[in-house]
Amino acid sequence: MSGTDDAPAERPRVFGTADSVYVRIVRLTLIEKGVDHELVPVDPFAPEGVPPAYRARHPFGRIPAFEHDGFRLFEAGAIARYVDEAFKGPALLPEGVKARARANQIISIADSYAYRPMVWGVYVERVEKPAQGEPSDEARLAAALAEADVCLAALAALMEGGPFLAGPRLSLADLHLAPMISYFQQAPEGAARLAAHPGLAQWWARMSARPSLRQLGLCAG
């Protein structure tokens, strides 16, 4: 599924914060497609809350939201798939039915099982809280690491030795998981668990060297 030849030229807008995993997923997709875009700051965790006008873009008050040529979307997965199909550039989902299903399965695993333990359970507890002078919740951290172990094992098995998560070429699956791993591996326990899966560790080294990830400050260190 390659991009169309007649996509409107209006610069897309992404609404959210630069450090959000799901905003990063959308922005990585845009960058990999070679699409210039604008990040419009919206912080759902601001003391005053979500701006009331933003609810017209996202009735649930989450980020990101997206607009292109008057067309509005919310939910990162839907936005990323739209970007892949609406713009020229390398296709970011495999052509084969089975390979495409595998990519979508990995995206679902990342959303349903990896995001919360890896980011909120491991990164926040081990990295962000101590940086703010708060104690880590060790019980929560241990539970999150156990969940992360299951996710990493499943992902490593699904890779089947490929250079990318869903086959020989970069896909939306890679761009979906990468921002989560970027946070997860900043915790010593996360880095150790990633290293225990050589295929995933090599995948992350490859991903973190990509210009798109470096542009957004997602690196291996």
TrEMBL record:
Pfam families documented for this protein: GST_C (PF00043), GST_N_3 (PF13417)
EC number(s) on file: 2.5.1.18
CDD domains, A to Z: GST_C_family (cd00299)
Database matches in SUPFAM superfamilies: GST C-terminal domain-like, Thioredoxin-like
Domain GST C-terminal: residue ranges: 96-221
InterPro entries per record: Glutathione-S-Trfase_C-like (IPR010987), Glutathione-S-Trfase_C_sf (IPR036282), Glutathione_S-Trfase (IPR040079), Glutathione_S-Trfase_N (IPR004045), GST_C (IPR004046), Thioredoxin-like_sf (IPR036249)
Record's GO cellular component terms: cytoplasm
GO MF entries: glutathione binding; glutathione transferase activity
One Gene Ontology biological process: glutathione metabolic process
Keyword field contains Transport: no
Keywords linked to the UniProt accession: Transferase
Record-linked PROSITE patterns: GST_CTER (PS50405), GST_NTER (PS50404)
Annotated GST N-terminal domain residues: 10-91
Enzyme class, spelled out: transferase
Name of the featured protein: glutathione transferase
Organism: Ancylobacter polymorphus
